[in-house]
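Exercise 7. Given the components listed, write out the predicted structure of the assembled complex. Treat all entries as one system.
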Amino acid sequence: MMTLWIVLGAVVVVALMLIGTYNGLVQLRVSVQNGWSQIDVQLKRRHDLIPNLVETAKGYMAHERGTLESVTKARQMAVDASSIKDKLAAENMLTSTLRSLMAVSENYPNLKADQTMLRLQEELTSTENKISFARQYYNDEVNRLNAAVQSFPSNVIAAQFGFKNAEFFEVEVPEERTVPQVKF
Amino acid sequence: MPFSFTQIEQEKSNTIKFSLAFLLFFYFLSALILVYFTKAYFYFSSLDSTALMAPVWPSLDGATVGWTFVGSLLAGGIHWQFSQNALIDSVIQMMSARKVDPDKHGERVFQNVVEEAGVATGGKYRIEPYIIPTAAMNAFALQDFKGRCIIGITEGLLKRLNREQLEAVVAHEAGHIASGDCLETTTTSALFKTFDNICDTTLRLMMSSGRVGLVGASFSSNRDSRRGGDGRLALFFLMLFILASILRFIGFLGAMFISREREYRADAMSAKLTRNPMALAEALRIIDGRWKGAGLPGDRMEAIFISNPRRNDLEQRSNFIADIFTTHPPIEKRIAVLLNMAHGTQRDLDAAVEQAQARYETLNPVLPQDQSQVQKDPLASVRGPLGPIMMPLPAMGVVLKDHCPRCHVPLIQESYEGTPILKCLTCQGVLIKEMDVLEIVHKREEKFNDHVVEMGQLIRRQIKPMKQNPFDSVFDEKSIVCPSCLDNVHRMHRRFVSPQFPIEVDKCRSCKRVWFDKDELEALQYLYELDHPVAA
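Answer.
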C-alpha cells in the first residue's frame, strides 16, 4: 500500500514537472513570437516612411538619382521578402542604403534645413532605434528559448513536442558591406 | 546585473512584495498609534484634576492590538483600492506636469525616445511622456501597481540635451521602471506627501481652535466649560499633529530604505541599453551645477528624480550616514563610474559637453521674427534661472577686476534707469550693488520685452507653494568669483533674491553686490510690478 502511494506521488510530481516545463517552453516561444512581431511593426513603419523621405529628398538632390533609386529598390526588396532569412538580408541592405543617403544629404544644407525633412529624419532615427531595441529584446528571448530547448531536461520535452531553436536577428555592420557612393 | 528585461522583471516581484509589506506595516503602525492616542485622550479627559496629578498611562491589551491589525488591514485595503487610481495623477498634479505636444519638434523627439524605451522593454510597458513646465533641469519616473508608467522631464532639461543625451536620460528612467524602483519611490513619496499635508492641516486647525478658545475666554469669563472644551480640542489636534509627525517620520524612514545604490544601477542599465555611457555622463554634467528645481512643488519627492532637486551637502559625501539618509549618490561619483565604462576622461567629457552646448546654440539660435514657431515657445528664450548657456565650467580661469565672471571680458559702466551698473556686453549680465537693486526695482520706466514677461509668468506660476527655505544659498567650487572684490575664497553664493521673488542670482557676501544674468533683473522688476500694481 505504502509503495503504491509513493509511486503515485512520484508520478504526480513528474507529471507536474512535465506540464510546468512544457508551459514554460510555450511561454518562451510566445514571447519570441511577440519579440519578432515587435520588430516587424517597426520594419513596416520604416517601409512606410521611406517613400516620403525619398520624395522630399528628390526636390533638393537631383544629382543623387542613383542613391535615391538604390534606397527605393532596397525598400521594395525588403517589402517583398517573405522568409526570415531573406528579410534579414533585405533589411540590412536597406539600412546601409539609408545610411549612405543620410551621409550624402549632409552635403545639401537646404535639404537639412527643410522642416519636412527634419521631421522625417527624426521619425526615421526613432524607428531605427526602435528596431535596434526590439532586436535586442528579441535576441534576448531567442537566447532564453534556445537555452531551454538545448538543456536537459527540457530538451527531451522540446524534442517530443517539436520546439525548435529560433533564429537570431543579426546585423552585419553595414559600413563593412558597402561604401557610401558619392557622385559629383 | 541581469542581462535582459525579462530577468529584471523577475527580480522585481521582490520589490513589489517589499513595498506591499512596508505599506501594510505603515497602516498597522499608524492605526495602533491612533487607537492608543484616542484611548489616552478619552482616559485623560475623564479624569478630574486630582487624578491628573498622578496619571496612570493606559496600556493596550492583545485583543485591541489584534482588532487594530484587522482594522488597519481593512482600512489599508480600502485606501489602497481608492488611491491606486489617484496615486500617479496626484503626483503629476503636484508637479503640475503636462502631456507632450507632438507638434513641437523637441517634445516630439522626447515622445519618440520614450516610445523607444517602451520597445526596449518588449512592449510590456506603455510609458507616457510628461513635461514639467519649468526652467529647472531634472527628469523623473513614476509607476503604480497597475503598471501605469510615466517618464517626465523638465522643459529646461529637454531644451538643452541633444538626442543621445536625452536617450541616455530616458533609458536611466526606464531602468528604474523595469527594476521596480519606481514603485517603491512613488509609493513612499506619495505617502510622505500625504502625511506632510496632514501635518500642516492639523497644525493650522490646532492654532485656530486654540485661538477660538482664548477669544472665548476673554469675551465671556463665565463660560468656563466652553473654554475647557476648546482647550481640549486644541489638545486633541496637538495629539493629531504629533501623530502625523510620527507617521511622517516613518515615511521618512521608508524614504531611507530607498538606497542610493539604485541610481548607479539605473545608470548602468541606461549604459547597457543605449551602449553610450558617455551621453549619460554628459547629461549628468549638464544637469549638475544648474538649478535642479528646489522650491518647486515637487519638493519632498526627491527620490523620483534623476538628480536631487534640493542641494544636499550630505549627498556629496560617501560615508555610512550619507548612505542611509540620502537618496542620490554624489553626481561626480556617478560620472566617474560612467566615464570608466566609456573609457573616457574628464577632459573628453568637458569637450563633449562644450560641443553639445555649441550644438544646442546652433540648433536653438535666436531666430529672426519670421521663424514664429520657435519664438512662440517661452522657454526657448529663457536661459534658466542659473544664467545663460555659458555656465562656468569647473575649470574657471582667473577673474580680473571688473571683468565678467562668465565671459571674462571687461564690464562696461552703464546707467540703468538712473542707477550706475556694470554690464557685460557679451552675455548681458549685470553687476549691481545690493542697495541699488531696490532703487531699480522701485522705478517703473522700462517696458518689458516678451521674454521677460514670459519668464516672469513662468516663475510666478511654478513657485506658489514654495516650501523650501528661501534663504538657502548654494556655494561650491562652481560658484563664481565676485568681479568687484575678487575674493577667491568667499565666492558668490547662488540664492533667491527673496522669498517673494524666487529668481536665482549670485550674491557676494563681502561687498554686497549682486550678479544678475541676462533678463533676470528685468524679470525681477516684472515680478515686483505684478505684486505692486500702479494705482490707475
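Discussion: The first helix of chain B runs from residue 5 to 46. Chain B touches chain A at residues 3-6, 105, 108-109, 112-113, 115-117, 119-123, 163, 167, 273 (CB under 8 Å).
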